[in-house]
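Reopening: Zinc-dependent alcohol dehydrogenase family protein still failing for me.
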Amino acid sequence: MRAIVIEQFGVLPTVQDVAEPEVAAGGVVLKVEATGLCRSDWHGWQGHDSDIVLPHVPGHELAGTIVAVGDGVSGWEIGDRVTTPFICACGECEQCQEGNQQVCPNQLQPGFNYWGSFAEYVALPFAQVNLVRLPEEMSFDTAAGLGCRFATSFRAVHQVGKVQAGEDVVVFGCGGVGLSAVMIAAALGARVVAVDTNPGALELARKYGAADVVQAGPGAVDEIRALTGGGPRVTMDALGSNEIVQQALTVLRPQGRHLQVGLLPSGVQLDVSRLIGQELQWLGSHGMAAHTYAEMLDLVASGVLRPQDLITRTITLDDVPAALDELTAGTPAGVTVIQPPARRP
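Support: Ran it again with your exact input. Result attached.
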């Protein structure tokens, strides 16, 4: 099969012919119909993830068709249309038994712990716990974004942040995660302020529900305070930046909630005295368990949420190296979906 292969961190990957994955007991193999290009893939390419062993095939948000079913997997057949969380939980540990698969200590992530979906085929472990059946009317392109960015934002905003109608929510960073968060928070009735350096991303944020947009920079904090009457109830770092974290915590009202979704490979400095004195909440959120997808899928089916509107570009495997390199200069507006054509049906 054709796949994107990283041979050195920070050096552009190439499209190569590699062996197709074999199906393992408890797992399945998918024909990849669509897969998203995410900033986390860029972090992996740069060597920020210690789980990655070279050579490596990235890619973790995906949708496809089952082409092989391993021993011990029931209820799934060849030809089924599926997606999966990027966190493939084991299904047996204490966290999984409690329904918290997104923090499973035995989790495996495609594109990080093993070869991922920037390829014509991908293997998925623990299929019984992690597969999500797709509605027939949902396109693979739409479904691909659900496994990481959209589902991550849905859980962060709705299940962890518990955003309520009428609350002011400020989203810092309007890439795929941030724009998803804007759309979801607005659909919940919140008043959303979007912050980014990219005018194009801010234009999309307004299109997807932001009441106001703010150009990131030295004056952003004062502008946010003015727009929110003194500060928001909720802030979210959807990019991953020490500077953003400081601004997000600075503008929060007392007893406000900060959602941290963006990765912080260089660490972060926290004013713990402010967290204590203002009774602020720092809430980490990491993915979403497969068994909680039903509510999100229902909202998509009803048209309340429209993740398909976030897709601004569709590319092929041959375009991936250049698209990955673009992320070095910043996150482009909208969501990029890769369609890797397979040689066999």
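The radius of gyration is 20 Å. If you still see a failure, please send the error message rather than a screenshot.
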